[in-house]
Amino acid sequence: MRLLKQEVGITEDTPLPSERLRAALSASTVPLSISYPIFTRFLAVEPDYEPSRLAASEQEAAISQVFSDWLRQLASARPLMFFVEDEQWIDPSSGKLLQTLAYGVAQFPVLLLVTSRESRTRAEFDKAVTVHLALERFSRGRLASSSSMSSKGAICLPASSRRFSAKPKVFPPISRN
């Protein structure tokens, strides 16, 4: 929701945030009469519609469709990278949304990068839409000894680090020491 709020340009000081939200939601295939009442509640925008009377499962489907449509619209303008970090902490409904998004944008130029410290992601993905990479534990000391800092502060790994991307699995934990 924070990403949508940021993209739409809704802040506490935004004049007429409901108009911005309406404009953003109008790009979806979900009618405004359905999506607008749901998203005003999530984004804390003062609604000028009655609250949604849809069942929770119908609201969930509408939210998933709006997000899928939104990401497809962004990806149609330019390639898109969508990053979800520490997926192991995700709540079940967000996991379901993530799974729906992965399938919804599979045919578009979207790189959906999901990291997890678990051996499997909570959002079940099949091999048709995902590639899993397992990384070995990589301590800060090991990173420091095998990398260098660029002039812009980016970490540059040597070519030998390519071996870390050779194993198709889910991301394991990265050591903090």
Radius of gyration: 20 Å
Total DSSP E strands: 4
User: What share of the residues does DSSP label as strand, in percent?
Assistant: 5-15%
Structural class of the secondary structure composition? Answer: mainly alpha
Helical residue percent band: 25-40%
Provide structural commentary.
GO terms for molecular function: adenylate cyclase activity; ATP binding. This is Orc1-like AAA ATPase domain-containing protein. Keywords: ATP-binding, Nucleotide-binding. Among the domains are: 1-58, no CATH class; 131-177, no CATH class. It is built from six helices and four strands; from the N terminus they run ααααβαβαββ. The chain starts with a helix and ends in a 21-residue tail after the last strand. The protein is elongated. The strands form two sheets. Strands 1-2 form a two-stranded parallel sheet. A two-stranded antiparallel ribbon has the order 3-4. The protein is mainly α and 177 residues long. Residues 158-177 have low confidence and may be disordered. Helix 2 crosses helix 3 and helix 4 packs across helix 5. Helix 5 links the parallel strand 1 (80-84) and strand 2.
How would you summarize this macromolecular structure in one to three sentences?
The chain is mainly alpha-helical and 177 residues long. The protein has helices spanning 2-8, 17-25, 32-43, 56-77, 92-104, 140-146, and strands at residues 80-84, 110-114, 148-149, 155-156. Keywords: ATP-binding, Nucleotide-binding.
